[in-house]
Amino acid sequence: MRAPDTTSDTALLIEAAALAGEIALRYFRVDHRVWDKADGAGPVTEADLAVDAMLRSHLIGARPGYGWLSEETADDAARLDAERCFIIDPIDGTRAFISGEVTWAHSLAVAEAGRVVAAVVAMPAKKAVYAAARGAGATRNGKPLHVSAAAGPDDVTIVTARPNLAPHLWPGGLPRHARHYRPSLAYRLALVGEGRYDAMVTFRDTWEWDIAAGALIVEEAGGTVTDRLGAPLRFNTPGRLAAGTLAANPALHHGLIQRILS
Questions:
Q1: Residue 198 has pLDDT above 50, yes or no
Q2: Fold held by 156-261
Q3: pLDDT tens-digit profile of 55-108?
Q4: Which of 62, 116, 170, 211 gives the lowest tally of CB atoms within 10 Å of its CB?
Q5: Where do the structural domains in the chain lie, given as residue ranges?
Q6: Which CATH number is 6-144's, of 3.30.540.10, 1.10.3660.10, 3.40.190.10, 3.40.50.1400?
Q7: Quick one: which residues bind Mg(2+) (predicted)?
């Protein structure tokens, strides 16, 4: 059977994200169970698991041949043999969700042959939905997105955690910058796709579910997204991790990589 086109998959992700938002908002800013995962993997809540269960039922119900990779589901190596695979973070920015901040997201993506082909980053508490289909552009609430035109690598805005701007990580010289921060990696990438900030960087190894959807949004908004050393990102991999992430418009991305690799 022929696989659905990428715009059809994106429409499915938008539909699923709306349902996820309805569930998550029922738990938002009200008392609910929160506990820590094993091995220092961070907190998880009732909301994370409720959203994950609904998304798996809804998405696999619609695409039974797709694989499944989610932060909140035990990994199944069968996904590696699937032609397409859902890559899901039910709530990206769980700490922000717990503290009542609005900067958490549902990060939903479909990968095929190592590349993301459909993506949604939904922000229910902000009433914002970022979406992209490979070859069809990226949008926020239906309006087209484009990355900033900042030439850089100096005098740029970077959305990142403070440790990523430690001078020793930039042998070619730390860019002159204004730093901004959002707890959700998916949202950071979406903001670069929107042109709100010029670049996003994280040097730490990064789980695929945190960056898959946002990476396609940046790319379809005209940007470049790689790992911290400039290598292409690959998704639905056995290890599920990327070697950091750097996103910006192509010229700025090149300049930042030169500062990192010098």
A1: yes
A2: D-Maltodextrin-Binding Protein; domain 2 (3.40.190)
A3: 999 999 999 999 999 999 999 999 999 999 999 999 999 999 999 999 999 999
A4: 62
A5: 6-144, 156-261
A6: 3.30.540.10
A7: 71, 89, 91-92, 210
Please tell me if the domain spanning 6-144 has the same topology as the one spanning 156-261: no
Angle at 70 between CA 69 and CA 73, to 5 degrees: 105
Cβ-Cβ contacts under 8 Å for 185 (sequence gap 6 or more)? 92, 200, 202, 206, 210, 211, 214, 245
pLDDT at 3: 67
Residue 253 pLDDT exceeds 80: yes
Are 174 and 259 spatial neighbours (Cβ–Cβ below 8 Å)?
Answer: yes
- Examine residue 144 and say whether the peptide bond preceding it is cis (omega within 30 degrees of 0): no
* Distance of alpha carbon 101 from alpha carbon 124, whole angstroms: 12
What pLDDT is attached to residue 168?
A: 97
**Model confidence at 216: pLDDT above 60:** yes
Beta strands in 3-104 (DSSP E): 34-36, 43-45, 67-70, 84-92
Mean pLDDT on 235-246: 98
Work out the mean pLDDT of the chain and round it to a whole number.
95
Cα separations (Å) of 88 from 31, 99, 157, 208?
A: 25, 22, 28, 9
Is position 210 annotated in a ligand binding site? yes
User: CB neighbours of 118 closer than 8 A, spacing ≥ 6?
Assistant: 6, 7, 9, 10, 12, 13, 109, 110, 132, 133, 134, 216
71 annotated to a ligand binding site = yes
Percent of the residues in the chain that have a pLDDT greater than 90, as a whole number: 91
- Taking the C-alpha atoms of residue 130 and residue 142, their distance in angstroms, rounded to an integer, is 8
CA–CA dist 260, 172 (Å, integer): 6
